[in-house]
């Protein structure tokens, strides 16, 4: 029986047919939804077009949904955008049930084979850092936009694992891929994306940015398909070079039926997911790190003092330095907390009837566990809105874990790339501040405002860099 009405639906003026879709502050939906949680309680619902979505806020209720009821909320809801982009397949991010389990297991084990959690991955990242440092050196003496080169450098790590190669920062195809990726993610989280999710049949016939997004995803898919073709030409089944090779080999496994997830179109979609998830996230976190440390030069100075004491200037940082650098580690954690780069989390769906916070949630209901409300939960953090590495340090200055630190989400669908991202963040961050000092242009204040798409990205900003 449909007891959904027991859930507090918001007393907001809903537009007939569109529901609450335009009530959501499009510039800061994550802040708006967090505030609604404060007013209406930690579980509430809204109509977004035809469908209702349940929003969950605050650390305790998010944990209840994603961890205590992990199995119930392990699925993703139907998404018309994904359906069109993934061409009837579901890639990795939007897949459900057995196909998702198979792909997640396969992807994790393949990423491990190609270095995840191993020294070989560390070497790949350190090599990329040397290219990045060379690029940064060219900018000494002037002001520059750091976003593009950080994006290039970070993307090359996932490219090595998926495509088996890195791209030169001047490579035209690579630049186009990154540009389309950034724009498509932004449009997906914009009102155009939201309208398409709510009214796909109608929006398909209307002009608007959603058409640009679909075109960009299509071109990205075509780029990847070209690479898959190249892999097929010189595939050696006994010697896979990367994710694409391993997937192609798995496709030939006689145990899989024709309907199995291991199909070429799905390979392209999984590569798109990994490229997307592995590029934008870590590089955006590094951009926030630059902003926070430029705004807090005293913290930048303390990080550099720890780097000089533990690593010095004559060698590159490595992962075995991390346990000896609690202050730097705490600053990276605090950057992830305040940077809040996946502010709304990935969408989830109840795979069976359940109750949450005393409210009945029927099977098939879409749910959003708002990560912003966890990373800024005032019952969990001493100074939620102030950049404070002390959140992650105990009285002796040692690194302290915090339960409400969930930038990678929690439960069964939590980020598959957490290990890789944490390694990248530590090595990129320490290497940058080892070799350089960063500041704003004279007389200019950096903005803490961001643009919300699928990720929360700082507004474009220029900075100055000095060699140390
Ligand atoms: C700072 C960096 C990163 C952050 C903050 C981050 C955060 C997240 C979040 C919040 C989700 C949604 C989880 C959910 O629905 O509960 C997610 C999913 C995912 N992430 Fe990340 N991520 C990062 C880096 C990466 C990297 C480097 C990869 C590359 C391997 C990656 C691959 C994925 C994949 C494949 C999923 C979907 C998992 C699934 O549906 O089973 N992420 N990430």
TrEMBL record:
Output the Gene Ontology terms for molecular function.
Answer: metal ion binding; monooxygenase activity
> What's the domain of life for this entry?
Eukaryota
Q: Which residues form a coiled coil?
A: none
Q: Which organism is it from?
A: Umbra pygmaea (Eastern mudminnow)
Subcellular location(s): the record lists: Membrane
**SUPFAM superfamilies, per the entry:** Cytochrome P450
Could you list this entry's UniProt keywords, alphabetically sorted: Heme, Iron, Membrane, Metal-binding, Monooxygenase, Oxidoreductase
| PANTHER family xref list | CYTOCHROME P450 2J2 (PTHR24300:SF177), CYTOCHROME P450 508A4-RELATED (PTHR24300)
Where is it found, in Gene Ontology cellular component terms?
Answer: membrane
Which cofactor is essential here? heme
Q: What family is reported?
A: Belongs to the cytochrome P450 family.
Protein's name according to its UniProt entry: Cytochrome P450
| Annotated binding of heme, by residue | 415
Matching InterPro entries, A to Z?
Cyt_P450 (IPR001128), Cyt_P450_CS (IPR017972), Cyt_P450_E_grp-I (IPR002401), Cyt_P450_sf (IPR036396), Cytochrome_P450_fam2 (IPR050182)
């Amino acid at each position: 029986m449909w007891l959904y009405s027991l859930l507090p639906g918001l007393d907001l003026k809903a537009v007939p047919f569109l529901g609450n879709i335009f009530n959501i502050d499009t510039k800061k939906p994550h802040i708006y939804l967090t505030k609604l949680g404060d007013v209406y309680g930690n579980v509430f619902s809204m109509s977004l077009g035809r469908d209702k979505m349940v929003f969950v806020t605050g650390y305790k209720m998010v944990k209840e949904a994603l961890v205590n009821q992990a199995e119930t909320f392990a699925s993703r809801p139907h998404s018309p955008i994904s359906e069109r982009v993934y061409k009837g397949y579901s890639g990795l991010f939007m897949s459900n049930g057995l196909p998702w389990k198979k792909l997640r297991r396969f992807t994790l084990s393949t990423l491990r084979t190609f270095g995840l959690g191993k020294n070989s991955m560390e070497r790949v990242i350190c090599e990329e850092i040397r290219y990045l440092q060379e690029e940064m050196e060219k900018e000494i003496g002037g002001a520059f936009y750091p976003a593009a080169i950080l994006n290039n450098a970070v993307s090359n790590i996932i490219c090595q694992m998926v495509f088996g190669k890195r791209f030169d920062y001047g490579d035209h195809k690579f630049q186009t891929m990154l540009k389309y990726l950034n724009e498509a993610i932004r449009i997906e989280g914009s009102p155009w994306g939201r309208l398409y999710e709510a009214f796909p049949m109608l929006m398909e016939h209307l002009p608007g940015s959603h058409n640009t997004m679909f075109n960009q995803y299509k071109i990205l898919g075509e780029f990847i398909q070209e690479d898959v073709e190249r892999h097929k030409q010189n595939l050696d089944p006994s010697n896979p070079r990367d994710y694409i090779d391993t997937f192609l080999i798995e496709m030939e496994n006689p145990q899989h039926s024709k309907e199995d997830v291991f199909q070429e179109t799905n390979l392209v979609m999984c590569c798109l997911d990994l490229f997307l998830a592995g590029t934008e996230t870590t590089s955006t976190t590094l951009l926030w790190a630059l902003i926070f440390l430029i705004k807090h030069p005293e913290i930048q100075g303390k990080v550099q003092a720890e780097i000089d004491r533990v690593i010095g200037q004559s060698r590159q940082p490595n992962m075995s330095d991390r346990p000896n650098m609690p202050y730097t580690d705490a600053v990276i954690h605090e950057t992830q907390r305040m940077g809040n780069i996946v502010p709304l989390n990935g969408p989830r769906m109840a795979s069976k009837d359940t109750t949450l916070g005393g409210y009945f949630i029927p099977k098939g209901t879409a749910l959003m566990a708002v990560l912003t409300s966890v990373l800024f939960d005032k019952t969990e953090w001493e100074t939620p809105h102030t950049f404070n590495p002390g959140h992650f340090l105990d009285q002796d200055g040692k690194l302290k874990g915090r339960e409400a630190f969930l930038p990678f989400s929690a439960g069964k669908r939590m980020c598959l790339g957490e290990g890789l991202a944490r390694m990248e963040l530590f090595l990129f961050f320490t290497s940058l501040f080892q070799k350089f000092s960063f500041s704003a242009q004279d007389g200019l204040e950096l903005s803490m405002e961001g643009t919300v798409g699928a990720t929360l990205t700082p507004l474009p900003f220029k900075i100055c860099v000095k060699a140390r």
